Amino acid sequence: MTAIRPSWARLALASGLSLSALAMAPTAALAATLDLGVTGELASFDTSQVSGGVWESQVLMDVYEGLVKKSPSGEILPGMASDWEVSEDGKTYTFHLREDARWSDGEPVTAADFVFGWQHLLDPANASKYAYMLYPVQGAEAVNTGDKPLEALGVEAPDARTFVVHLKAPTPYFVQLLTHYTAYPAPKHTYDAFGREFVDLDNIVTNGAFTPQEWISQSRITVSKNPEYYDADEVALDGIRYHTIEDRNAGVSRFRAGELDIMTEYSSSMYPLLKEEVPEATHMATYLGSYYYVFNHREGHPTTDPKVREALNMAVRRNVLSQQIMGGTFQPALSFVPDGINNYDVQTVTFTDADGNDITADMDARMARAKALLEEAGYSSDNPLTLRLRYNTTDEHKKIAIAVSSMWRPLGVEVELVNAEATVHYQTIAEGDFDVARAGWIADYNDAENYLALLQAGAGNNYGAYANEEFDALYDEAAQTLDSDARKALLEQAEALALNDNALVPMLYYVSRNLVNPAISGWEDNIDDDHPSRWISFDE
């Protein structure tokens, strides 16, 4: 027997849904296990081995907790640290761990676990994809590159409950960064006992609200409430089942059949139908994410020519992509840093004609100028510009790639579309085998630096190998600037420079798309689209 809100039941019946579509999750009185659909497979419970998928963050934030945590609305709250102080120069943070912080085996969470966890993540032997997240810490980059030993990292544990972090420069977003899984602790006592097998299910201990019990690859992960969690009495759920569902449409079907309480993403093409038939369950909200195309700046590619980049950027019709192709489930974007970032005014692309007049709002003038730029670059009907455009395989990415190709076709551009699954796609473009490539970035923390870091020369996720000394100088100066207004101005100047250089093609802002059982409390739309399950409960 299932318990359903009367309003939900009436809505579903009025919409003509089958009885199976009414089967939502039981209330807390019957069972308190959350069934949650995630769109990918967790790489590992070892945070140094995580691939960076949004779906992985969901699982990890439920089983681990860092120095801070997030509220349902996205507000930063004390986590393992009950409080902290910052030195006057902004370079030293002293965190005081709560006395009742414990691992799921009952052992205390200590400052040494944070020291070990951060050293483990930065250990070059682990080749962590996201090690750079800790680079603001003194010595972190040198440790990660193998130039210095692990002990050179600027962290210390003067006693069991005091964790001190020394930064190489003032970092205004540092506490924001601590919400990311790269800043979680690791249980030194189990690593000492089991080595790299410390995250095997037989050995794993966690310090979050839940702890793992089962993992069936490409099917589900099951976790149960952690009785050792300091706030366990306030955690309503007994457990969670994370179902791996890469096919978004299949996820929608399973949600409507009552197999899932939450589906963390649905295809944009499904939005009109879902909004009409199950409006109380259908969520779409502003989200800190950018959908963009990367230009390859490596020698030997036509996109090294700034005229080619400007022409291609100019010909993209963002409103068409947003409204006609994606049905309003993305927002058009002329900036790389998305709107809504804390303490930042987004900088937008301005398209101009040969005389410097602003033609951004005039699509006909933009197309005429784009054709002229390609002619100036040496391309014509006898010598057409040919491009290899890579995208990772989903219906949405395919639709956008086909649409953009058709927007470039009037310029005489011939486009070869190449698709691959996400892992292969990102590996391929990181190696430089493309002219133009699809990419997306969801904020790891709410600061413009998190986006602009992708345009730094040599950065790990700078897929196009963009390099501009003036940009790097502005970025580096901002990293050393403690005054928030001065820092803001430097970062805005850096983005404006990169956009003027047509470093990439900003196209769309993401919105979060979730299906949520209306009988759930403690789940809120927020700009980070983070939803820790420790706050979730089923209505009685």
Task: Fill in the keyword field for this structure.
disordered N terminus, 19 strands, globular, four-stranded antiparallel sheet, alpha+beta
Low-confidence stretches: 1-30
Structural class: alpha+beta
Shape: globular
Q: If you compute it from the alpha carbons, what radius of gyration comes out, rounded to the nearest whole angstrom?
A: 24 Å
User: Which sheet architecture does the biggest sheet show?
Assistant: 11 strands, mixed
How is this structure best described in words?
With 540 residues, this protein is an alpha+beta fold. It contains 16 helices and 19 strands. The strands form four sheets. Strands 1, 8, 9, 10, 11, 12, 13, 14, 15, 16 and 17 form an eleven-stranded mixed sheet that branches. Strands 4-5-7-6 form a four-stranded antiparallel sheet, covered by helices on one side. Mean pLDDT is 91; it is low at 1-30.
Secondary structure blueprint with pairings:
Blueprint: H1 6-14, E1 33-38, H2 54-63, E2 68-70, E3 76-78, E4 81-86, E5 92-97, H3 111-122, H4 140-144, E6 155-159, E7 162-166, H5 174-177, H6 188-194, E8 210-216, E9 220-225, E10 239-244, H7 248-256, E11 262-263, H8 271-277, E12 282-295, H9 306-314, H10 318-325, E13 331-332, H11 363-376, E14 386-392, H12 395-408, E15 414-420, H13 422-430, E16 436-442, H14 449-452, H15 469-479, H16 484-500, E17 504-516, E18 520-521, E19 537-538
Parallel strand pairs: 1-10, 1-11, 14-15, 14-16
Antiparallel strand pairs: 2-3, 4-5, 5-7, 6-7, 8-9, 9-10, 11-17, 12-16, 12-17, 13-17, 18-19
